[in-house]
Structures are given as structure tokens and as C-alpha cells.
Amino acid sequence: MNTKTFIAAAIAVAAVNVPLTASAFDRGCRHAVECYEKVRSPDVYQTVERQVVVRPASREVVYSPPVMGTRQERVMVRPASTRLVRTPARYRTVHKRVVVRPARTVYDVVPAVTRTVYETVVVRPATTKWVHRRRLFRGEQMCKFRVPAVTRRVARTVVVRPSRRVRRHIPAVTRTVAKRVMVREGRVHKVHTPAVYRTVSRRVVVKPGERHVVRHRAVVETRRERVRVRSGGEHWVRSR
To answer: Which of 11, 84, 115, 133 is deepest in the core (most CB within 10 A)?
Structure first.
């Protein structure tokens, strides 16, 4: 605590504890060793300079259009081509004697000449056999008997003249036919057609368009302003 504050506090305490009249207070001040007065000091102002942003910094995108020009160009109207041309073959009709069936030799079979003859054939040949007989008064007797042959008349076919092969010649069979013969063969050759060009004017880009960013700085100006440096207040000042 400083001296002025202490003195002001002591005076305030004394004024509260010892109530005095105005005349008594005036008489006391004349005889007092030290007196103080309460005064009010005004606010203290000062003019200062301050930077103020009038326009902030910014960016702007600027587009530059392309620069166009005209250029003569040779362009293809129709491309080259190659095609195949076929020349057909030439024919003519000729008449020719051809063999339909060739000559040949065949053999005919002449059947055999036969006739029927009759003859007697022995079916069973003659034989002998023994016969045993028993007689009443003369006893037993063995007799040999002859058995005649058994024959039969049969028909038989005999060959009077045997079969034979007779050679026979068959002449060839021919006829006239029409035949188509080639006089000249067909062929294939290539025909080349060159490309067709023409000159045209075409717009071309001489310089392409561009985009670039333009940066604008902030605009700042200095302004003078009056500002309060210290606030005023009440304090005690020694009167004498």
C-alpha cells in the first residue's frame, strides 16, 4: 500500500469516528499539520495510427481463349483400292464318236442231246438156299434150292451228244455325242484404283487456351484514431 492511499484511508476513518461541524472542520484545517483534497482527474486520450484493410487479398482465375488459324491440308476423299477382275473361260461344243459299249466275245452253251433207253436191271441176283424138311417115315432131309434173280425194266437217259461252248463275237456299240471343250482358260487379274485427294481449309489451334490465377494483394491504409490511454478517476491531492 502506497503513502497516499494510506493517508486517504486514515482520513476517512477519522472522519467517520469524529463527527465535526463545518465550522469546526474549517478551524481544524487551519491548525492542521497536513491536509488533502479529493480531486477528479480526466481521462487521458492519445491519437494513434492503425493499419486498416480496405480490401482483402483475393485470387482471380483468368481464361485466355485459344488462338485459331486456318491451314491448308491435303485430305483423302477416297482411299486406294484393289479389285479382282475375273475373265471367264471360253468353251465350244464338238461332236465326237465314242464307244458306248466295247466289242466283246461271249461263249454260248449248247446243251447236250440225250435220249431215253430202257434196260433190264437185276434188282436182286439169283441165289441158293437150303431148306430143312422133316419127313414122316424117311427122317430129316436138307435140300438145296435155287432162287432166281429179281429183275426190273428201268428207263435211263443217255447222252447222244455232250454239251459244248460256242464262241460268239459281239461288235462294239458307238454313238456320236456332243462335248463341251475349253478353248481358253479363265484368268484373274488385279485392277488398282489410286486414292483421290483434295486440298481443304481447316481451322487449327495456333495457341491453346490457358487458365492462370491472378493474385490481388490486400489494400491497406493508415487511419488516425483517438484512443483512451488511461481512464480518469478520483484521488487525494495534498492541499498545502
So the answer is: 11
Q: What pLDDT does residue 122 have? A: 86
Question: What's the alpha-carbon Rg for the chain, to the nearest Å?
Answer: 84
Question: What integer pLDDT is reported at residue 141 of this predicted model?
Answer: 76
Q: Tell me the CA distances in angstroms from 120 to 11, 149, 199, one per residue in order.
A: 208, 12, 129
Q: Which of 175, 226, 22, 183 is nearest to 89 (CA)?
A: 183
- Which residue, 40, 41, 39, 47, is CA-closest to 228? 47
Contact 78, 198 (CB under 8 A): no
Count of H-run helices and E-run strands, the chain: 2, 18
Distance (Å, rounded) from C-alpha 166 to C-alpha 106?
8
**Does the pLDDT of residue 81 top 50, yes or no?**
yes
Residue with grid cell 491536509, as numbered in its chain: 35
